[in-house]
Specification:
- The chain is α/β, with parallel strands linked by helices and 330 residues long.
- The protein contains 7 helices and 16 strands.
- Strand 1 and strand 2 form a beta hairpin.
- The structure holds zinc ion.
- Zinc ion binds next to loops.
């Protein structure tokens, strides 16, 4: 039998009726690239977990990881003791091996659908509906809700695996326990967002009350060329969550960073004064000129600053980089 991913890429997954595996697990394909697993016994539903991947179609390592987990669940070597929803995000872009077809899909969430929406915006609206439905159908006592949106980065990174924690809803705080737990998945830094970017993880955080993270796992490579991306710790960790474990680290090795400043491109004259190929989390010594835009100059005045996502080729008004500094979540 072909894997779920192979079937999806071949256009052969569509909404299907739920069925029950011999071990009692309920399986249902809810949409193209969207599959849900549920333990039969309500007592065994201790966690509602969403794992998404492929929101950017050129980031294939996490898609292969998700496909392995789905295969293990379908053949019964993994037996869920949590409700799990897997989402393969931008299927057409995955087929073409490109980041996106019309627009960056991870900027199309948390918005009102419009008749002029392109393929990414329409798919994002559909996925939002699937998440709302998944969390609403839990029934029984409330259980923890987690969403990991798995990515790989365009840039290299001095910190190979890091996560972005969306800005909490007003009155809420960053989730310290879940930040610490990510250390078990091989993640060593978490960037706390200062502004609400319209990402998939912001949606599940804001509208589904999930503890949500965008997880960056190393370099983006084509299918079959991800040997350099070591996802073993993450795979073990997700397998444990699916089997109902809630592993807790003895101490947290995860370093939290906050955004000190956003570098916004204000005009076509914008110039980045550091290497735009600089790895994420490259240290920026005090006094370093970072960028200039007409009269405006950005110079490092923070202690222990680092650069994240440097990119001068964005549209005017968009973010050309972030200056981040270590912090304590809370
Ligand atoms: Zn991505």
């Amino acid at each position: 039998m072909n894997s779920f991913l192979a079937e999806t890429l071949a256009g052969r997954t569509a909404i299907a009726l739920p069925y029950c595996q011999a071990n009692g697990t309920h399986v249902q394909v809810l949409d193209e690239g969207v599959i849900r697993f549920e333990p039969r016994e309500p007592d065994a539903r201790g966690l509602d977990l969403v794992v998404s991947c492929g929101v950017h179609g050129n980031e294939t390592a996490p898609v292969e990881l998700v496909d392995r987990l789905i295969s293990a669940l379908l053949c019964g070597t993994l037996r869920p003791r949590a409700r799990v929803l897997f989402v393969i995000g931008n299927i057409e872009a995955l087929r073409r091996g490109v980041r996106f077809v019309a627009e960056d899909m991870n900027r199309q969430f948390c918005r009102v659908p419009d008749v002029g929406d392109g393929p990414e915006a329409r798919r994002a609206a559909m996925l939002e509906m699937q998440l709302v439905r998944f969390f609403a159908q839990a029934g029984g006592e409330p259980v923890p809700r987690i969403h990991y949106d798995l990515h790989t980065a365009i840039h290299g990174s001095l910190i190979e695996k890091f996560a972005i924690h969306p800005q909490p809803a007003p009155g809420k705080e960053f989730d310290r326990a879940e930040i610490a737990r990510l250390g078990l998945a091989g993640v060593s830094a978490v960037l706390l967002q200062s502004a609400a970017a319209p990402t998939f993880s912001l949606f599940s955080s804001r509208y589904c009350q999930a503890s949500a993270f965008t997880v960056e796992l190393g370099r983006a490579m084509p299918f079959g060329q991800n040997q350099g991306v070591d996802l073993e710790a993450l795979e073990d960790y997700l397998g444990a969550l699916i089997e109902g474990e809630r592993p807790s680290p003895a101490s947290s090795d995860v370093v939290a960073y906050r955004v000190s400043r956003e570098i916004i491109k204000q005009s076509p004259a914008f110039r980045l004064l550091i290497d735009d190929q600089a790895d994420n989390f490259t240290p920026l010594p005090h006094g370093t000129p970072i960028a200039e835009d007409g009269e405006t100059r950005w110079v490092v005045d923070e202690h222990d600053a680092r650069i994240v996502f440097p990119n001068p080729d964005v549209a005017v008004g968009q973010r050309a980089g972030l200056i981040v500094v270590p912090t304590t979540p809370g």
